[in-house]
Amino acid sequence: MQITGIKALVEIVIQLGMIWLTFTAIQGFRLERLFRHPPKTLPLAIVLFSTAIGYLCASFFIGFINAVSQLPGLLR
Where are the transmembrane segments (predicted)? Predict the structure, then answer.
């Protein structure tokens, strides 16, 4: 049961880390410079977009980690 808790904690950290990473990367583009009058909802759109991309990236890495952890079963 303790291994399941550790695995869940690792997945949460990976999810939040990827969301933070994509948020930082999207902010680096300075999207507000593309508009003469940036919409008031631009920061919300950036947060939602980075959450979506971060979730997809985290799901990929979590799936990859799960697949790699299953490889020793192939050698038995």
Answer: 12-29, 41-65
